[in-house]
Design goal:
183 residues; 13-stranded antiparallel sheet; 2 helices; globular; DUF6593 domain-containing protein; DUF6593
């Protein structure tokens, strides 16, 4: 069974400051980025410590993304691993689907390469060796529905890496779209 995570908030930095909920509205992951005038900011991604049947305000740190403009941004995982983004998530050419941004490839903890492919309404994650069968998919917000991330059973062992890389890649897409629009 797939894991579906729904964005609680839309617009106004929906990726960097949001709660990702299950179908019942229980918070599963949070993403928080304090507002600052500095271009250097830190996004903290946390996981709920509650089970699905109880409401809880207790969260456990999963990772942080330190966004930088001059030097490479970094990711720090809860296990202490810290890595520069450009050594972990590689820009992998432009998306052929609609020409709407870059593809990004990372190596999962299982040793396999995975590529996020960008299109207008979707961001899909594929194993590098299988371009036909996605293992995760983000359906972007439309007028009728909010955005949500679906992680298929074959990739649930990578759930937290998928969440962290998704947040990084989608924020890169948001910034590229704003830059292209002159904002």
């Amino acid at each position: 069974m797939s894991i579906n995570l729904y964005q609680k908030r839309a617009h106004l930095e929906p990726i960097l400051n949001n709660v990702f909920q299950d179908a019942e509205g229980n918070a599963v992951y949070t993403c928080h980025t304090p507002h600052t005038i500095s271009p250097h900011r830190t996004t903290t991604i946390s996981r709920s410590l509650s089970n699905n049947s109880e409401k809880c305000d207790r969260f456990e740190y999963v990772a942080q993304i330190d966004w930088r403009t001059i030097r490479s941004s970094k990711i720090r995982f809860a296990d202490g691993k810290e890595i520069e983004i450009d050594k972990y998530i590689r820009k992998d050419g432009w998306s052929l689907m609609s020409g709407t941004g870059r593809n990004y490839t990372f190596t999962g903890k299982d040793g396999k390469d995975y590529t996020w492919r960008n299109s207008t309404l979707h961001l899909k994650l594929f194993p590098k060796d299988d371009s036909e069968n996605p293992v995760a998919e983000f359906r972007r917000e439309t007028l009728m529905k909010g955005g949500h991330l679906e992680v298929y059973p074959s990739a649930q062992h990578l759930l937290e890496e998928i969440i962290v890389t998704f947040i990084y890649v989608e924020q890169e897409n948001v910034e590229a779209t704003m830059d292209a629009a002159g904002g």
